[in-house]
């Protein structure tokens, strides 16, 4: 399945809306989108995975790498996710304690108010 990445600005946040599957084949596209945003000075990222059907360890690695990059410059990275299947992956790996997981983009924004 194809990976889609749509970005929109919600100052001071950059929202990346991801769709499809994040796996070993598509993770480089996600990494590219994240790096592009960071290099453009967008250090407050919200990654919306509501339209993601599948997430593997490669995809998790991209998300962790992105978090490290933004935190190195005092940025933030939050994830919008309500799918039980994906939330379980975050819980099993302990990444639910590392990422800010939210029910909506608005909730992610509000968590920084």
Automatic annotation (TrEMBL):
A matching Pfam family: STAS
All residue ranges annotated as the STAS domain in the record: 3-112
Domain of life: Bacteria
PANTHER family for this protein: ANTI-SIGMA FACTOR ANTAGONIST TM_1081-RELATED (PTHR33495:SF2), ANTI-SIGMA FACTOR ANTAGONIST TM_1081-RELATED-RELATED (PTHR33495)
Family: Belongs to the anti-sigma-factor antagonist family.
NCBIfam families: ant_ant_sig
Protein name in UniProt: Anti-sigma factor antagonist
Organism of this sequence: Aeromicrobium alkaliterrae
């Amino acid at each position: 399945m194809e990976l889609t990445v749509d970005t929109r600005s919600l100052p001071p946040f950059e929202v990346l809306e991801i769709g499809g599957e994040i796996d070993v084949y598509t993770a480089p596209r996600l990494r590219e989108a994240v790096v592009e945003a960071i290099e453009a000075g967008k250090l407050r990222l919200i990654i919306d995975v509501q339209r993601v059907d599948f997430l593997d360890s490669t995809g998790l690695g991209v998300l962790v790498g992105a978090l490290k990059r933004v935190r190195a410059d005092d940025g933030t990275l939050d994830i919008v996710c309500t799918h039980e299947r994906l939330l379980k992956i975050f819980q099993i790996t302990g990444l639910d304690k590392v990422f800010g997981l939210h029910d909506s983009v608005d909730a992610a924004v509000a968590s920084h108010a």
